[in-house]
Design brief:
The complex is a heterotrimer. By secondary structure, chain A is mainly alpha-helical. Chain A contains 21 helices and 2 strands. Chain A has one domain. Chain A has a two-stranded antiparallel ribbon with strand order 1-2. The longest helix of chain A has 32 residues. Chain C is an all-alpha fold. Chains in contact: A-B, A-C, B-C. At the A-C interface, helix 7, helix 8 and helix 11 of A face helix 1, helix 2 and helix 3 of C.
Chain lengths: 494, 136, 101
């Protein structure tokens, strides 16, 4: 409800322009959360009620995002609540993406939720609040709002990472995520303070106007601020060299949580980065684009090389997510022109990563602990469905043609080529080929090695639905990507 | 503000430090010294110490303390609203009302879940009771 | 109004905070260092707000939000530290080596 209490913030002479549709997803989720908690604590109806409340909340949030999309796609951003919230195709698409992803992650985590007893309600609530925070990050049109949304999102995830409480590696993951995440938030905040000092405003469009009109003779403070902003956002999307938290957290946190964490952090982090960099700091593209290019290159190389050496599926996926952060950043070196390509990659990767961690969650049992690769040997004979789903996700992440991963890589490379970053594209191509090794290794392990365990792994209904949906989306977006690409052309920040 | 304006503070600082150092040095120089074991104990209002003071104390208050801190800090939003109370009018009252309702909702939830129960044994017993009820 | 002293003070505080995060071994002290960094940001925000003669007092209002968010963050952080302490009776960051650090 932060956005309501923010209303005292007066733009000089600006109108209040309240528009409840612009924050409808957050409002609906907040109401669902309040009802869920109050009814649960009073009448204790159990996990079925949590599922109903979460389904209603997410369905309402998706519907509201679709309404925003219909009304605002392809148009300039409309700012509401005195320039705090921007509604445009960009924020609407972020909602259409983040809420189904959160619902899918919750479905893969459902066995864990049921095993938590009374605390399960809090788990569901935290996923919903984190999703609302992630969407607010994409819709924030003021750095203050962006910071608050970032914290709503991050603090929920810190708790989720350590939620199982009984497993020592999970609370270790939570502490590491918390300490490094809080450090990143503080650095990001210092960046905001410096940008505020240099431009005199925290409004994203205000900064853009200021930088477009004024010539700064001594831009030191502004440049330092931009650098700190990039570092803070780099932490959140786990780009190297700010990725050290990712492997431990991905491995220690429960599988369902990790899928949500990986997907939503990429969506929200890159949405925020795209809005800050290509709208607010567009006039300064010569300053930040080379830095983004270097971070992308380092992420791709470090992520690919370290992923090869891993023996745990979740840890391998963590390093692979570092490499993917690099690929996605490759789209941003060209500024606003690459945002649609960034969206395509982020959307398809989010679906893949939720499904991959969903398989890990199913295979490693209800506590959803670590996932040593040895557990996956011969999975195709024990559970052909799971092996097929994980194999497809691995091929898509590796960028095999006819999967969404291939189209995504092609899209971000073409964006970087348009911006004359040939060296980055060559490097990324080499790394992508090298990366095929560890993705294919999982496939080989599942299909060509003898099974060690006996008996098939039971797949809960929720995980089954998620895997089918993810497989269909991944193949469909790989074979006929044009409708999605055309829509994404209307999902740009205004 | 020039440096000379800080002179009174500097003098005050000097006197404070000087007094502390002087009394320590003087008592060391002219005070009588005949230590006994009782005199070397830490002074606790003249009562003989029962146990070693360096020990862990129960953290059962940490939950209440943290909840207090979080609820306490939320008050600053009301402060910001109060500054512009007349400009914001009924819209402000409504917004702060919703904000307060959410805080109350949180408080009710925390209370019902037993986090405000000071007596941990009592809290544990309630959990056990509930588990027995659910098992039955 | 001269803003440089405040800038230097904030930068010093921020650096001390980063030093503490990197060097301290106890999770509670790391938490304290992060609080120090947030305080540095608050000093910056209020000083800049005053220096820019901002009619909206954005700097001060932003500082209020930072204070509340910091309180929430510390609440969560202490809870996680206590959880760790219960599981292995130590809040030492060095000893968290179940997962490769």
């Amino acid at each position: 409800m932060v956005f309501l209490s923010l209303s005292f913030w007066r733009e000089a002479g600006g109108a209040m322009n309240v528009n409840y549709l612009s924050v409808a997803p957050e409002l609906i989720l907040t109401v669902a959360v309040v009802l869920l908690l109050m009814i649960d604590v009073q009448w204790k109806p159990g996990y079925r009620w949590w599922g109903i409340a979460a389904a209603l909340g997410f369905a309402g949030a998706i519907a509201a995002s679709v309404m925003q999309w219909v009304g605002h796609r392809g148009e300039d951003a409309a700012e509401y609540f005195r320039g705090m919230i921007a509604t445009d195709g960009f924020s609407a698409f972020a909602g259409i993406l983040i809420f189904p992803i959160a619902a899918m992650a919750l479905m893969t985590a459902w066995p864990l939720v049921r095993s938590l007893g009374r605390r399960g309600a809090e788990f569901v609530v935290l996923v919903m609040i984190a999703a609302a925070g992630a969407h607010l990050m994409a819709a924030a049109s003021n750095l203050v709002m962006l910071f608050i949304a970032l914290e709503v999102f991050s603090i929920s995830l810190y708790v989720l990472a350590g939620f199982t409480r009984a497993r020592a590696d999970a609370d270790e993951a939570a502490l590491k995520y918390f300490l490094l995440g809080a450090l990143a938030s503080a650095i990001f905040l210092y960046g905001i303070a410096l940008v505020f000092a240099a431009t005199g405003t925290t409004s994203i469009t205000g900064i853009a106007t200021f930088l477009g009109n004024e010539l700064l003779f001594r831009p030191g403070i502004l440049l330092a601020g931009i650098a700190l902003l990039v570092v803070g956002l780099g932490f959140k999307v786990s780009a190297a060299p700010f990725h050290v938290w990712a492997p431990d957290v991905y491995q220690g946190a429960p599988g369902g949580v990790t899928g949500f964490l990986a997907a939503s952090a990429k969506i929200a982090g890159f949405a925020a980065a795209a809005r800050v960099l290509t709208v607010a700091l567009d006039a300064r593209i010569e300053d930040w684009a080379p830095a983004i290019g270097v971070i992308a290159a380092v992420s791709i190389v470090v992520g690919t090389l370290l992923a090869i050496a891993q023996t745990d599926l979740k840890r391998m996926l963590a390093y692979s997510s570092v490499a993917h952060a690099g690929f996605i950043l490759t789209a941003l070196v060209g500024g606003a022109a690459g945002v649609a390509d960034m969206w395509f990659y982020v959307a398809t990767y989010a679906v893949q990563v939720v499904a991959a961690f969903g398989v890990a969650a199913v295979v490693s049992g209800p506590q959803q602990g670590p996932a040593p690769l040895a557990d996956y040997a011969g999975l195709s004979t024990r559970s052909p469905g799971l092996a097929l789903a994980l194999g497809l996700m691995m091929l898509a992440m590796g960028g095999i043609p006819l999967t969404a991963g291939f189209v995504g890589k092609a899209a971000v490379f073409s964006a970087a080529l348009d911006a004359d970053y040939l060296w980055l594209v060559v490097l990324a191509l080499v790394a992508a080929v090298a990366g095929l090794f560890f993705y294919l290794r999982v496939v080989v392990l599942m299909y060509m090695q003898p099974a060690e365990g006996s008996g098939s792994v039971p797949v809960p209904l929720g995980a089954r639905i998620v895997l089918v949906v993810a497989a269909v989306v991944t193949v469909l977006a790989g074979v006929v990507p044009w409708p999605l690409l055309r829509w994404l052309g209307e999902a740009l920040p205004g | 503000m020039s440096l000379i304006d800080y002179l009174p503070i500097a003098i005050m600082f000097g006197i404070a430090v000087g007094f502390a150092v002087a009394s320590l040095v003087l008592s060391r120089l002219i005070g009588p010294k005949n230590p006994t074991p009782e005199k070397l104990e830490p002074y606790e209002c003249g009562i003989v110490p029962l146990q070693d003071p360096v020990q862990r104390f129960p953290v059962k208050f940490y939950l209440v303390a943290m909840l207090f801190v979080i609820f306490d800090i939320e008050i600053v939003f009301l402060f910001a609203w109060a500054v512009r109370f007349h400009d914001l009018g009924w819209y402000g009252v409504g917004a702060v009302g919703v904000f307060t309702l959410l805080l109350i909702e949180t408080l009710v939830y925390v209370w019902k879940r037993g986090a405000l129960d000071w007596n941990i044994a009592h809290r544990r017993r309630r959990v056990v009771d509930r588990q027995l009820r659910e098992a039955a | 109004m001269i803003v440089n002293q405040f800038l230097v003070l904030a930068a010093l505080l921020f650096s001390i905070g980063i030093y503490g995060v990197l060097v301290r071994r106890n999770a509670v002290l790391v938490l304290l260092s992060i609080e120090l960094m947030l305080t540095a940001v608050n000093i910056n925000l209020v000083a800049f707000g005053q220096y820019l003669q901002d009619a909206l007092v954005s700097g001060q209002v932003f500082a209020l939000f930072v204070i509340t968010v910091a309180a929430a963050e510390v609440g969560i952080g202490l809870a996680i530290v206590i959880l760790i302490f219960r599981n292995r009776s130590s809040a030492n960051v060095d000893e968290l080596d179940l997962l490769k650090w």
